[in-house]
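Please decode residue identities from the backbone states below.
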């Protein structure tokens, strides 16, 4: 079975996560998918296969060398984003892409066009897997799942490629920021790992945002508007006042690279009560802390004008993995060499987001992120070039080989 065969099979599983359920996994479809993968790994003859009640699936490909080799892990997540439906995904392969518009759904007039997504032009002449315009595709991260299992299968079929023990894991709920929460690092038993959860070909990421979520609750007072003078306190208007107090240009739509932001992701309210939900992001830890302080400062300003009106709750979500990975440069060097050996140009870029690898790094498992090949995640315009998935599979194989060769020479 090829990496494409696996991917097309895996996207049929509805594994959209849901942060409202307070369960792990957050949706039953993720466990159904994990159980399917468990059976596949068993049929392949892998060892130490475990699937716990929370949907964390782990397995081992035993090494085939006599000398001591570090145990390396590869990780991907089972769930797809809550941002768009992942039910009844109907993928289509566009052979030999010609650089023009791709009609995803003629009836609804949904078109994947290089005029809106110029990155398409990087893949002219390649075969692309696209959606039917009604759902996301699920390359984030079922491409990663398919690549890891395909690489393991390739290593099994080619015993001439020497490698140490390889640990693999598939976890739930990455898309709602909970993928690493119940990941048993000790049981996984790898010295370091790579998440196969990056974007386009060549991406190698070991820097990510520091992240927090902030909720500000504004409490008002409602009276009849005809008699409201000096009595009504409109929480909607006060919440709007808070919004415009934050820097206008420090938002996702105005930032790139290492620039951080405040992102208003939710606003719900009435005159009596309004709740704003923000996510706060910055690569630099000091700036990150200053952003949280600014939220506290603005809350105090609001309360000075409207005593007791605003209540702020900030919770950190994850931190920049760079401080955990950078002291171990061989982890990055091996990934870069593996890409070059697979004829892939490494592109070391900061993640403008998060990944399970960030949380895992702070739990004691250094874990950079490698490309899985997909683009335009979380929506109907998501696509993945087939050659990118094939190269990602090869990179995993090369990492396994390089780690064994380095250990033998040490």
């Amino acid at each position: 079975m090829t990496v494409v065969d696996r991917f097309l099979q895996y996207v049929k599983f509805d594994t959209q996560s849901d942060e409202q359920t307070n369960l792990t996994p957050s949706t039953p479809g993720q466990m159904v998918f994990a159980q399917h993968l468990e059976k596949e790994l068993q049929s392949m003859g892998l060892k130490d296969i475990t699937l716990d009640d929370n949907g964390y699936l782990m397995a081992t490909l035993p090494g085939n060398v006599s000398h001591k080799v570090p145990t390396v892990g590869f990780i991907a997540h089972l769930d797809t984003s809550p941002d768009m439906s992942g039910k009844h995904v109907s993928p289509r392969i566009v052979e030999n892409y010609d650089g023009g518009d791709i009609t995803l759904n003629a009836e609804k007039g949904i078109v994947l066009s290089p005029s809106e997504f110029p990155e398409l032009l990087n893949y002219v002449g390649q075969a692309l897997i696209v959606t039917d315009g009604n759902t996301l595709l699920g390359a984030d991260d079922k491409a990663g799942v398919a690549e890891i299992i395909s690489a393991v299968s390739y290593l099994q079929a080619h015993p001439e490629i020497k490698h140490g023990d390889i640990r693999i894991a598939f976890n739930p709920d990455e898309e709602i920021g909970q993928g690493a929460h119940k990941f048993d690092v000790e049981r996984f038993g790898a010295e370091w790992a790579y998440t196969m959860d990056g974007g386009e070909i060549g991406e190698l990421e070991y820097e990510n945002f520091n992240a927090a979520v902030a909720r500000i609750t504004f409490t008002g007072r409602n009276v009849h508007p005809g008699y409201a003078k000096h009595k009504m306190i409109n929480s909607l208007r006060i919440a709007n006042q808070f919004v415009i107090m934050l820097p206008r240009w420090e938002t996702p739509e105005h930032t790139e690279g290492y620039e951080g932001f405040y992102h208003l992701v939710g606003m719900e309210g009435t005159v009596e009560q309004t709740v704003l939900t923000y996510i706060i992001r910055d690569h630099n830890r000091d700036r990150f802390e200053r952003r949280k302080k600014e939220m506290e400062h603005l809350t105090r300003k609001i309360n000075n004008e409207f005593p007791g009106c605003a209540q702020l709750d900030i919770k950190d979500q994850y931190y920049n993995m760079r401080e955990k990975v950078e002291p171990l440069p061989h982890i990055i060097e091996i990934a870069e060499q593996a890409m070059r050996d697979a004829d892939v140009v490494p592109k070391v870029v900061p993640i403008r987001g998060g990944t399970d690898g960030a949380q895992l790094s702070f739990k004691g498992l250094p874990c950079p992120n490698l490309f899985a090949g997909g683009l335009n995640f979380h929506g109907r315009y998501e696509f993945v070039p087939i050659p990118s998935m094939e190269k990602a599979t090869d990179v995993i194989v090369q990492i396994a080989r390089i780690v064994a060769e380095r250990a033998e020479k040490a």
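Observation: The radius of gyration is 23 Å.
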